[in-house]
Amino acid sequence: MEWRTHLLSGIAAGYVVTGGDWRAAVVGGIAGIIPDLDEHKSKFGKIVFPLSFLINKMFGHRTITHSLLFSVLTVLVLYPLTSEWVWLSAGVGLLAHIAGDMLTGQVQFFYPVPKAIGFNVTQKTFHLLDRCTALLLLVYLGREMITNI
């Protein structure tokens, strides 16, 4: 998926898992783009270019940062340092990103096991799935904003 859709999915995940906390939605949104740290050509990867380039060369794309291992380690690092809503929303934001990439491609979710899981889709299907997912997430979040005014 594209970065905007990952951001939206992370926002929605953080919001839902905390029962409607918008601070958690922000944390989830940020976490939702972090797995693309492994792609130096991605929007986020360009921001942290030296690091993203090294991770990409060492591990490749959609491997370690798109894994359950990465998600669990991130939560374990955040757990003693932050409130529950922070580590929880960060964890689901990361998982939302990974799930989105499984919908539009394959990831090594059980890294370091080299088996990739997910759907192989054409470029046209990728764009269709990405846009439909983004639209559904926008509708959901918009509805939540209107409901909670």
TrEMBL record:
Domain of life: Bacteria
PANTHER family referenced in this protein's UniProt entry, alphabetically: INNER MEMBRANE PROTEIN YBCI-RELATED
GO MF term (any one): hydrolase activity
Protein name: Metal-dependent hydrolase
Annotated InterPro entries: YdjM (IPR016956), YdjM-like (IPR007404)
Keyword Nucleotidyltransferase recorded: no
The organism of origin for this protein: Lentibacillus juripiscarius
Membrane-traversing stretches: 59-79
Hydrolase among keywords: yes
UniProt keyword terms in alphabetical order: Hydrolase, Membrane, Transmembrane, Transmembrane helix
